Every structure is written in C-alpha cells, then in structure tokens.
Amino acid sequence: MDDRLERALDFSNFRLTLHNQKQSAKQRAENMLQVQYSNSLFKADQTLITFVQAMKAEGYTPFVVSDVHDNPVQIEDSETFLEKLISAYASAMNEYIISHEKIKKARNIKRLVEWE
Amino acid sequence: MKKSKKQGISNDSSNGNNGVTFFAYNNEQIDYIKLAVLAASAVKKHMKNNQTCLITNKTSLDWGKKSVTTKVLDKAFDHIVIEEPEHRPNIRKFHDSPWTVFKCQFENWNKNNVIKLTPFDKTLMLDVDFLVNNDVLDIAFGLDEPLMLYTDAITLRNLQPHFTSERKLHKNGIPMLWSTAIYFDKNDEVVDLFFEMWSHIKDNWDFYRYLYGFQTTIFRTDFAVSIATHVLTGFVKNTLVKPLPDNPMKYVEPKDDIQDVLSDGIRCLSHKPDEEWLHIFVNSKNENLHIMNKRAIDRNWDKLMRLYE
After folding, report:
1. What is the pLDDT of residue B10?
2. Long-range contacts made by residues B215-221, C-beta under 8 angstroms, separation at least 24?
3. Is the dihedral of CA B123, B124, B127, B128 positive or negative?
4. What mean pLDDT value characterizes chain B?
5. pTM for the whole structure
6. Among the four residues A22, B68, B124, B198, which has the most C-beta atoms within 10 Å?
7. Helix (H) or strand (E) run with residue B222 in it
8. Which of A23, A28, A34 sits opposite B139 (nearest CB)?
C-alpha cells in the first residue's frame, strides 16, 4: 500500500476512535446529571440550576418546576433541591473533564484505549 | 414454584423491599447461570438496591452448583426461585463475532411471570447479559413511575441500531422497546395489566406477528413488550412506559467482541455492520452494558468477575 494512504487510513481510524470515546464520555456525563427528587427525575443542567437559584433568591417557596417528562413538580425545600442539583452537576462535569482531557492528550489508538 | 431464602446475614443496603431479578435457564450451548452470577455480582458492586433473585430450574441450578460452586451462588443471590419454564420450541441464532454462528433453544416464554415470581415489591428485571457498571439505575426505585424500560438503544459506536428490525417491528411499524431491563412496582394496577397483556400476546403470537407485520417466528420479548405498550397506550405513540434514567441503553452487538478487561472497564472490538471485517476499539468505563455476545462474556468471565469483586 502507498505509504501516504496507509498513514491517512491510520489517522482516519484514530479520529473515528477518538470521536467515539468523546461521545461515550459525554453520554456518561449526561447520565450522571440525572437527579431524583420528590419521586421525580430532573436533569441537573445549567439552566435548571440557574432557574432554581433565581426562584430561591426571589423568595418563591414553594415553587413549581417541570421534570424531565414535563410533569409539574412542587419544590418544597429549594435548599436541598439546589444542593442535589449542584452536587450532581459537579460530579458529572469533574468526571467528564478528566475523561475529556485524557482523550484529548492521546496521540494514537493504543493511548486512546489504554493499551500502553 | 418454590422459594428459598438464603440463610445468614443479609448484605442488603436498599431501602424497602427492592431488588434485582434475573432469569437463567441453561441450554446445551450457554451457561446462563454463570452469566447470571456475573450480572448479579455487578449489581452487588454498583447498586444500592442490590438484593438479588435468581429464577431458574432445578437442572440449571444443579449444574450451577458444580460449575460456579454453591459458595459463589450464595454470594451472588439473596433469593433463588425454582420455576420450570414452559417447554415450547424457540430456536434462536446466536452470533459470536462476525465469524461464528450457532443455534440453540432460547427459554424466554415465562419472563412475563416475573410479576408473580419476584420476591420484591419494586423489581428491576435484568437480562443476564446486562452488566451494571454504575448506580444510575438506583434512581428508578425512587421515582413515581411504576413501569420503566429502555425505549432506545445505541451501539458501542454511539449510533442507533443499524438495521430497521432493531429499531421497529416493521419498516412502517411501531418502535421497538427493549425488554433487557424492566423496572416495575408489582403492586401497581397498570403494571399488572402490562404483564397480563404480555402473557396474552405470547399465547397469540402468530396473530400478533400477522397484525404487526414482522417476519420472525421466534418469540421475542422485546416485541411482546412493544406491542403490550402500544395497546395499553391506546394504539398511539408511547406515553405510558417511561424510559429508564440512563436511556438509551448502550449495547455490545452480537458480532462485537470483548478484547480485554481493564482494571476499571471493558475494552471491546466494535464491528462495522455494513463492512463486518472492519473494527474499532472501544473502551467502556462506568457505563451499563448489554453484552449480546454471550460467548464473549463466557470467555472473559474470570476477568470480569475480578472487576466486580
């Protein structure tokens, strides 16, 4: 095989594996953002955290938010709810950035899949 | 039906009567008990709702006592329920990488009886080839939803299933839901209806095959739960059965393989469906995995067991 093509195909394989590992890390972070509160499921994303913070700061207690299935849920204890959201967000994002940095630094497939 | 409770100190750390249930019936090709032990060990390691129950028959259990030893079985399962399956022919084709195919009897006729057989009020029924690698499924036990399963799945390449038959029952038909993991509260009336409907579909399989337009003659529980949900929702898009918290389910396809087990994950070989000789490596860490290549699990069983010690 022509060396140039061989090098290009090696790189192509590496890029495919790199992209896939990044996607998996992102998927894992998405899963870790799931928070159960008051028998309902929420995603601890930046929007929800900011909204809950704003409602709390404005003194709305209790207040209503939509869960991931768009059901209205009354939040009685905004302090605990916010703590849970921030904790899930921090854990998910910390793990995500560690994985992401590791993937980013890998320069070949063996490094990427921790063969060496 | 005979229920036996393991003696000794319980390592149950769940709240209430919650747990995970597995069905395992050996055939001449696959030691399902061995797979169930591994899957239960993964649950014990990663989940808080980690009481486990094995539903099996006497011959499989007797074999398991020899192949994995009674001590290992006792450690993996808090409850063992003996239930003979309904013996109806159900020959299925299995793959082990793109290069090996084998056929054998697949016992899944009585999976709908889990609602009667499970010792738990809130149950997560898992297939024995589903390996839990995080605690996200614990969330299901705390939600106000009586019935949940995976409504979508992605391959190791983070893509939707390649073939239409893995996404829909027919090219113009209803979406396929996955029976690999089903969470349910057995005291809920809708859950009762769901399992009754599943049983009815099973008893009238040929009729439903014709009605929903699919070719396969083997009884597929994925299809049965998809039809049951479609009927109970009112013959429209599913709004009844909610997805499990880590939906979509990540799965290792039957033609994929396990290359090695790492200290903190599993390294797989993922094949390309339209060019089967092409593979990429995929490291899977902290994600729940439905490993459909059962022989690959068997080949790596010792290493995988060490991962869940």
Report:
1. 36
2. B216/B165, B218/B90, B218/B91, B218/B92, B218/B106, B219/B88, B219/B90, B219/B108, B219/B109, B221/B108, B221/B111, B221/B112, B221/B179
3. negative
4. 91
5. 0.92
6. B124
7. helix B221-233
8. A34
Report which secondary-structure segment, H or E, holds A18.
helix A3-32
Number of independent structural domains in chain B: 1
Closest CA relative to residue A24, chosen from A84, A116, A102, A89: A102
Structure tokens at A41: 């499921």
CB contact under 8 A, B156 and A21: no
CB contact under 8 A, A28 and B285: yes
- Residue A88: closest C-alpha in chain B: B136
Could A39 and B144 be called an inter-chain contact, meaning their C-beta atoms sit closer than 8 Å? yes
Instruction: Report the CATH number that the domain containing residue B270 is assigned in CATH.
Output: 3.90.550
CA distances (Å), A36 to each of A46, A47, B203, B207, B246, in order? Answer: 17, 17, 38, 41, 12
Q: Where are the beta strands (DSSP E) in B83-224?
A: 91-96, 100-105, 122-126, 130-131, 147-150, 153-155, 178-185
Give ipTM to 2 decimals.
0.89
Helix axes B205-212, B189-203, angle to 10 degrees: 90
Name every chain B residue with its beta carbon within 8 A of the beta carbon of A40. 143-144
Instruction: Determine how many CB atoms are found less than 10 A away from the CB of residue B212.
Output: 17
> How many Cβ atoms sit within 10 Å of the Cβ of residue B155?
21
CA distance B78 to B197: 30
Residue B102 bridge partners (DSSP): B94
Taking CB atoms and an 8 Å limit, are A113 and B156 in contact across chains?
no
Q: Which two tokens stand for residue B77?
A: 């399962």
Residue B85 DSSP label = P
Q: Which residues from A are below 8 Å from B136, CB to CB?
A: 31-32, 34
- Structure confidence by residue, pLDDT tens digits, B89-104: 788 888 888 888 888 8
**Cβ distance of A36 and B250 shorter than 8 Å:** no
User: Which of A11, A24, A40 is the best mutation test for B, with the most CBs of B within 10 A?
Assistant: A24
